[in-house]
Amino acid sequence: MLYEPNMYELAKLIATTGHETTTLVEGHIGSGKSSLLKLLKEMLSRHTPIYFDCTTKSEGDVALPNFAKLDDDTGYITSVTHEELGLHLKGPIILMVDEYGKALPPVKLSLLRVKLERVFGSYTLHPDSIVFSTTNLGAEGVGDLLPPHARNRMSVVRMAKPSVDMVLAYGVENGWDASLLSWVKDNPHCLQSFTDVKDPQENLYIFHPQAKNRPAFVTPRSLELYSRTLKHRDVLGDDLTTAHGVGFIGASAALDMAAYIKLGDKLPKREQILNDPNGAPVPDNTAALCMVVFRALSSMDREFVEPFMTYLDRLPESAQDLFVNGVRAKNYSKKGIVMTNAKFTAWCKAHDYLFTVDA
Asked: pTM of the predicted model, to two decimals?
């Protein structure tokens, strides 16, 4: 939808407006809402990131009474806030109030002034501090979980579910298993929103509120967790690896991925490409070619660029385009290593790819 910004757009919105107004981000399960805090920290280096998990807090966890005494021995009650709120810090903070929609009513009420005025009792946040909230996407909308006076203090913005390209770029950057990345590329419906699927039986991979007997499903978060297991499959074996996958991404996805991953046995080893790029075997199916490209993007270093570019010339044009577009991805950290290589720039010139390291 037009007014469903992605994670990076929301980070820009919050970094720009979060010192004055509060945004409540609602999004799908495991879609990267918590990653907003990491993105904001990268954008605002002098701020201290603070994570406040509403699901673990009761009324007494937000603040406790503290007795103070004046010089004439008369006393009064003040409040001491929870360390996780970061209100005691003197410098600017980025306060992420997570799972606000699931908070107990007293917890929601106690945080209202922080959201509107950046004040709690006698505590006042640094004027540059950023405050925002997150919550899971509710089938009827999070606004129904908030009283009107609370809803009116913030802007509720729905975060778009990450696109396949965004998930693949993130996975490459964070070293996800190449076989898993290739499976996601070949099965883009694994990241489909349940709002686009009327009958849960139409897509057995995803979370759907009507699928009562589907405890595990595919999300960007569960894919990242299962990727860690897949890297140990040589030790665990196929059955144990798949069992772990069923627990992370569900039976349908895990069993389909297990069959798909067996293609990975045909992949050329990285050392083969490094030492003999003209003789290393070239896979004869699209899935395996994708695995080769994703593995190269994830493990790229200066030593590997030149031999891989030699090897790349032997691959089909679709695989070459997949590699170059991976390098062009906005957040690909190894972009400079590849783009400054003479063979890469020669390839780009020959194929009319015009972009620079700063692109």
From this structure: 0.77
